[in-house]
Amino acid sequence: MKDRTHCFWVSLPFKKVPKIMVDECLIMVTACLNYFPNKKGISTTMSPASIVLGRGKIDGNNLKATFGRYYKVYSGTDNTNRERRTSAICLRPSNSQGGYYFMNIETGKKIHGNRFTELSMPQHIIDRVHALATAEYAPDLDEDGCPIFEWELGAPVNNDDKIFPNIQPVQEAPDDESEDEDEDSDEEDDDEDSDEEDDDNESTSSSS
Description:
With about 210 residues, the protein is α+β, with helices and mostly antiparallel strands. The longest helix has about 30 residues, at about 175-205. The protein has helices at about 1-10, 20-35, 50-55, 125-135, 175-205; strands at about 70-75, 85-95, 100-105, 110-115, 115-120, 150, 155. A hairpin with a 5-residue loop joins β3 (about 100-105) and β4 (about 110-115).
């Protein structure tokens, strides 16, 4: 999941992004994985999305937008002077007919669009994305421009980590033999104490 998510971020110019972009990217990656059969799954020919949701195969002809890119989305008209297009950042496909979800640059909210045009990313759009992220106190992206994955708050996922960072090694329970030895040693100590008391009593009676 981590490596597949990085593929969408390395080419983007952002230093930080709003939470909605990270969430929607993870939803998209998960959906893409579910569209393909799993070699270790219950079927090698049918995908999880087909088995559970009844969805067919992906039609690549409908994949016309790219996550994180800048688009002008047609938002319809109401016969006023209001602008008919909305500046937005692409999030993910919304259906199999070519619809997409976008993030409105002005509000930071998710919108839907079927008609859109990709444009080059100007600096003021990058600055606006950074401003939306700052307003949410979003953390900076890593040195590769990708979200930081964490096991928990303050414990980042590292490819070199072999185990969960805060899991303590399990201590082995004492064997029955060691418990028996401890009991035997305790009994021997009690016997020695009783013998010493008997010797003291005998010495006291002889002196009297």
